[in-house]
Amino acid sequence: MKNKLLLFSALGLCVFLLSNFKIHTNSFIFTVVNEEPELPEVPFSYEDVEFPEHLLSTEIDTLDPGYRSGGVDTLAFELLENDVATLGRVLFYDKKLSALENISCASCHRQSLSFAENKPFSEGISAPTRRNSMHLNDIAWTNNEDFFWDMSQTDLTEMISLPLTDENEIGANMDEISVKLGLTNYYPELFENAFGDQEINEGRIVDALVNFISSMTTFNSRFDQEAANGFEGFTQQENLGKELFSINCSTCHSQGRHADIFIDFPMDPETSTLEFMPFLFNNGLPEDPDDHGAGEWNPAFSNLFKLPTLRNIELTAPYMHDGRFSSLEEVVNFYSKESETNEWSIFIPDGGFQFSDQEEKALVSFLKTLTDDSFLTNPRWSDPFGNSTSIPENGFDDLVIKPNPFSEQSILEFDNSLGKLTSINIYTSGGRLMKHDNFTSNTYAFNKTEFSPGIYIIEIIQGDRRQTQKLIVN
Ligand code: HEC
Ligand code: HEC
Q1: Which atom of ligand 2 is nearest to the CA of 293?
Q2: Residue 342 backbone class (left: φ over 0; alpha: ψ -120 to 50; beta: rest)
Q3: Sorting pLDDT into bands at 50, 70 and 90, what band is 276?
Q4: Closest residue (by CA) to atom 36 of ligand 2?
Q5: Residue 374 and residue 67: Cα distance in Å, rounded?
Q6: How far is the CA of 133 from the centre of ligand 1 (A)?
């Protein structure tokens, strides 16, 4: 059931394009960017994860409430294998996985940004993602069981595997991918190293990706270093921030064993919702009419979103499921002055925590102590192809759609005086392609008769220029 929602997952999106690529073949410029990957002779070690003492200790209350010890689920790490993760690294960065060979996992999950993106929505090949790309640091030990902003996926292997295979939703043909990878100089050997023979299949591809992303741990922030010596090296401001965080924020954002603090939380065992409870929350953002979070797979959880880990949070702006805040200052200011109380954000007073300016600054500087710079440059997780993984974005400076929102008719306009062939794709807000058309004029008209009220995503493509825009129909 929940998997239906995977339609929106951007991971799926990259493969979803396989089914649509005929539409686009004229409009994209093909560039072969990937040569062969450069890999170390002895594989990097992904298996030996060194856990800092404060995460392994089984004593519970030695540290602040937000940082319970004993929080690491070491099982996830014991299953990692160096050769499998090495293959995963290549797959993660290899644009060959996508039909048009112009997108990889890393296009939306960049190492320099703790495997997140620096814009609210990422560009898939044919439509923007519906939600803000999520950082992948600490996947294995934070919320090892629940994925996506709405936590609709409870198993990492299934999460990666489903959108790759479901014909109706994404329509990827895994056989084609397997053949394609088999024809390269490097995959047969990588599969052999990883699995003992050269067979390439979906299960192995997924396994390798899971091994690779599960190995991404950040245990080397200043916070971790200071935790070992009682935070003596923290500035006064950082210590104030830590104190404020422990009192006000760690009720939800605990970095340790999340379940500890929810033991007394009232819940109804009959509804068997318990397994999801510790991780889904609402933080008092005004209701988002475009996105009901977990409410999309269970109405009882409307407007609840995953509690993201705040490790490396400094690097993963913009923030929240829709990337609405562009800085940590804005986030803290929101919690301070604007947050609204509802039954799921009871830990936040109505109207916010009312921090002073000095306290807001202290919270921001504390959040920055969670940054682990070594994670961003660690070669284990780096691009073996050495390519830039960003998608070039050449938009149309002068493109306007007016009126927008519209009730009867709206016109898209831009300078196309050379009469170049231009493609237009119209998507529902859920990413489903509704209409495809070509034109060579300066304008394109939208008529009310073709739409029901709602939000649509318009994509214009001309040569290597491409732009997406929201269209609202009243
Ligand atoms: C076009 C951009 C894009 C591509 C390509 C992409 N992702 Fe994502 N990824 C996202 C977005 C957006 C989300 C959040 C989706 C949601 O919540 O609905 C996400 C979520 C995830 C999550 C869940 C993280 C969490 O904490 O719950 C994982 C894991 C993930 N992606 C891994 C991958 C892997 C592996 C690949 C390549 C096979 C990939 N992604 C390709 C954009 C992308
Ligand atoms: C009631 C639970 C709750 C409390 C208390 C809370 N948060 Fe959150 N926080 C959340 C949820 C849920 C999200 C994700 C919301 C979304 O995307 O819609 C979130 C998101 C965030 C994000 C953005 C994460 C990202 O990856 O984009 C930051 C930063 C953050 N919180 C910091 C704080 C700070 C600082 C405090 C204390 C002042 C705090 N939070 C208190 C539940 C909470």
Answers
A1: 18
A2: beta
A3: very low
A4: 249
A5: 21
A6: 6
